[in-house]
Amino acid sequence: MQSDVTPANEKLHVGIIMDGNGRWATRRGLSRVRGHEAGVETIRRIVEAAPKQGIGTLTLYAFSTDNWRRPKAEVAALMTLLRFYLANEVQSLVKNGVRLSVIGRRDRLPEGIAAAIAGAERVTAHGHALHLRIAVDYSARDAILNAAAKAAALTSLTREAFSQLVTGEVGLRDVDLIIRTSGEKRLSDFLLWEGAYAELHFTERMWPEFDSADLADALASFHRRERRFGGLQSLPLEPAPSL
Ligand code: IPE
Ligand code: IPE
Ligand code: MG
């Protein structure tokens, strides 16, 4: 089988706010933690489906900086799931050509997780089928703030250079589409810089029940939209004046 050699940044960048694990579980009389466990199964399904649906970069919101406000037991369970995911998933990520990056703070994670993340990133570094970015202890406003602090030392600054400081990547494609499950219609501090022109797709489906057909629906709706980037319908964009 010939492998797809299109560079990741020429394919779509999709961000997903994986919401609704808790409600999915409580509605079934299960503990919220059961919902998070089921949510990990969905991650496996969607990571497998994404490259087949034209996605080159997939950014998943797993744990926000504000999620530390949850009860200690729920936070601990989420951290345990992250630990298991890193330990159990790396082999199949390598096999499927997935490069894993984790974005967000690492210094507040329970012991050993930062090292497991670094190990997983190293082992998967050569994957070209999909760039999977998982946001953990992540806040878009903090990412912008930290980039601004670094930029203060520079004498000149372009959008590209600032993007690199915000994302930690050279040439990361802007987010094309942000999907949020569970019926909530907000961004909750996710990809505020990279998603400046992202299309938004909100679905009532809870994250544990979201599947590859739902992903295909979201992408079909995305492809029906007309993206104008401030220009006019179907005319080539004129260059914007420099600052
Ligand atoms: C998303 O599901 C997972 C995390 C935020 C970690 P939630 O846990 O927010 O589920 P709901 O919104 O309470 O249903
Ligand atoms: C956003 O979901 C964060 C993740 C999905 C990881 P939340 O459930 O924490 O967001 P709010 O509190 O409803 O805005
Ligand atoms: Mg939620």
From TrEMBL:
EC number: 2.5.1.-
Pfam families on file: Prenyltransf
Organism superkingdom: Bacteria
Residues that, per the record, bind substrate: 20-24, 32, 36, 64-66, 68, 70, 180, 186-188
Cofactor comment text: Binds 2 magnesium ions per subunit.
Single GO MF descriptor: transferase activity
Alphabetized UniProt keyword annotations: Magnesium, Metal-binding, Transferase
Entry annotation: catalytic residues: 19, 67 (proton acceptor)
Cofactor(s) this protein requires: Mg(2+)
Enzyme class: transferase
Positions of Mg(2+) binding: 19, 199
NCBIfam families, alphabetized: PRK14839.1, uppS
Role of this protein: Catalyzes the condensation of isopentenyl diphosphate (IPP) with allylic pyrophosphates generating different type of terpenoids.
Subunit structure, interactors included: Homodimer.
Family: Belongs to the UPP synthase family.
Protein name per Swiss-Prot or TrEMBL: Isoprenyl transferase
Species, as recorded: Bradyrhizobium iriomotense
